[in-house]
Amino acid sequence: MADAESGPAGLSLSAARFTRATDRLVECARFYREIVGLTQLFVFEDHAGYSGFVLGLPDASAQLELVRLDGAPPPAPADPEHAVVLSVRSGFEELRTRLADHGVAEVVPDNPYWVAARAFAVLDPEGWMLIVVPPQAGPGPVRIEEFVGDRAQIAWSFRMAEDSEQMLAGYIGRGRVWVARDDSGAVVGHVQAAPEADESTWEIVNTAVAQPLRGTGVGRRLIEQVVAAATDAGVRRLEVATATADVGNLRFYQRCGFRMTRVVPEVFTAAAGYPEHEMIDGIRLLDQVWFTRLL
């Protein structure tokens, strides 16, 4: 991924703002300012018909703009995946108590990742979800084990590496799956490997690690688990494919001992269920590159 301070082509950012229309402007502003504790950066009123509040972090690097246009129709209801996510350094339990004291009930996010991260969630006055993530200590012990349950239970982990529901449905049942579990038993990553027709080659079909544990060696441990299982099975070669646009994956697989073997053009297309014109690291998601590791 691009460095946060010096992005593609030397892009340097000072702030990021998310703007959201609301019919309950004052109530939502009070919720985020007085109960949640965001800093009110500025207020504007009747600016070409628009009024609003801009709240955010004290350094204004991340901002939430709540805005209302006079005479505009009501905004669409919030989708369950629409959320404001706050990662706190301190005061996690204090914020939880303050919300409860104001009669704000907790809800359970659909995405089990947030439950695994020990976050809690509430709804703001307009029904948008606020997810509060506790301070993340250094990664605790992670164990790798084969997964023999219903893979639908961990499909969310597969989706971290797969943008096409059509493609995922076609392969999620293949081969064997190993998962990484943290010290609470929560799944924080996985790898799926399946034999090719002649059984002498296995393909790593899908692998992903939860964001907080990326860069901690969990991904490499998952790959090495596949290497060990494949070696025990007499497999002579591993293959894995990724997008040519995903620079991070290109680097990762080569560090894991894989070598590039071929490029397949125009794989990640709308016909295959992928979003049109999706970009990764400033490069269009389109072509596929294959890697091989001899065992």
Topology:
Layout: E1 16-21, H1 25-36, E2 39-47, E3 50-56, E4 62-69, E5 83-87, H2 92-101, E6 106-107, H3 112-116, E7 120-123, E8 129-133, E9 143-147, H4 155-159, H5 165-171, E10 176-181, E11 187-195, E12 201-209, H6 218-232, E13 237-243, H7 247-255, E14 259-264, E15 279-280, E16 283-284, E17 288-294
Parallel strand pairs: 1-4, 5-8, 12-13
Antiparallel strand pairs: 2-3, 3-4, 6-7, 7-8, 9-10, 10-11, 11-12, 13-17, 14-17, 15-16
Number of helices: 7
Sheet/helix structural class: alpha+beta
Q: Which sheet architecture does the biggest sheet show?
A: 7 strands, mixed
Reading off the top of the CATH hierarchy, the class of the largest domain is best stated as Alpha Beta
If strands are numbered along the chain, what order do they take across the biggest sheet? 9-10-11-12-13-17-14
Morphology: elongated
User: How many strand segments?
Assistant: 17
The percentage helix is 10-25%
What is the beta-strand fraction? Answer: 25-35%
Total domain units: 2
What is the average of the pLDDT values? 90
Task: List segments where confidence is low: pLDDT < 50 over at least 5 consecutive residues.
Answer: 1-7
Any idea what the radius of gyration is?
Answer: 22 Å
CATH H-level name of the largest domain... which superfamily?
Answer: Gcn5-related N-acetyltransferase (GNAT)
Give the distance, in angstroms, between the N- and C-terminal Cα atoms.
29 Å
Helix and strand run: EHEEEEHEHEEEHHEEEHEHEEEE
